[in-house]
Write a structure and sequence with these properties.
- By secondary structure, this protein is mainly beta.
- The protein is built from 4 helices and 23 strands.
- Strands 1, 2, 3, 4 and 5 form a 5-stranded antiparallel sheet that branches. It has a 4-stranded antiparallel sheet with strand order 6-7-8-9, with no helix packed on it. It has a 4-stranded antiparallel sheet with strand order 13-18-16-17, with helices on one face.
Amino acid sequence: QLTRTWNYIRGGVVHVISVYHDPLTGVRSAMLNHEEIPGSLGNSSMFMENSGHRILFSIRGVSGYIEIKKVGWFGFDYECIVGGEKLVELTQKISQSQGEEVYDIKIAEHRSGSDGYSEDMITWYLIETTRLADGYTNTVHRRFKDFVNLNSDIRQHFKGHHLLSSLPSLPERKSKMMTDHNDPAFLTERETQLQTYLTSLIRVPHVSDLTSTKAFLGLMEKVRETSLVFTTQTIGITLIPCDSPGTPAVIGFIQNPDSCMGLLAGDIVSKINGNATGSLTFNGVVRMLKHLPRPIVVHFVQALACPESDRSFRDKDAKQTPWKGDVLSSSETATFDDEADEARPVEHLPSFSADNSDTVGFVESSTPVQKQPAAVTGDQSSTYTSFRDTPSPRPNTSPSGGENEYVSFS
């Protein structure tokens, strides 16, 4: 499969258009801003008509299309037209990073532990990335399979490009039947090999500009991803439910900043021990954090709002917000239920210390969650402002029907 990507800039916003195509089977699909374009899934094989196929889309009222045409017997040509303008494919441009280093990437350590679901051990590599343009540093944990996915994505982008041969080879996978993957010597050698791979990879023109690379490093234009290892039952954060699709829980406030370095109120709990939380309920996230054996690796996503030119995203009364409502009412909260992960409205929400005790207590708060601007983090442009749901200072309240409830992991 190969990938072709174009960027279209309108109103200061960069829109990413991608097509994915398997020249052998003809299966194709396309994405706009990382979401599938409706109707794009189809087949464009070597037997299609000479006129080619078009995938239609629209960007803020501007019509566009991706055109796939045959070239010779087995070749294909890809073009993207938006508003009558032919866009230049990303790898055909002069790389923004040509001749200069963009990132300093180091594998700070590796750590092995249980995945919490079986007796298998998994190894995490802590990737520490410094963006040289502004000195911003981000850390995120990745497994070897994440390196494999990165390598595959990048090779898809460079398929048919003269720079494909310049890409370094990923350290080979070794069978667990032949090699002990928990052997310290093996893990140290693999860490060294992966460091060499990343160092060589990031020096290839265009690689640092690719979405796949930025996502792997946790430094997307509008999203920052970071992760922490928690070794104790107490993790020092308070979660609140969120009704945005695929976002069951966000940080309400941080009670122990020393153990939660880099986290901010409003950050999304995205993965626990490498398992995505998007399909879980709020209670499902709570259960995992409470009961999985330590240490656990938790990934957090910090969403940055739209540019200043797109006022609707930042408007308090706009329909599109990071998560619905500036104040969470009691009808929007959920219980912690040991028998089911299904959320249901309650008047009180149990709080617990994330230990192995079955005892739960009740806490209440009349703290409204207010939307407040915060500092720009993990973005390449100063035109972005981060908006997160952060609680107001918590007043002393008596347990008499508070408006909001929180699950506390203090």
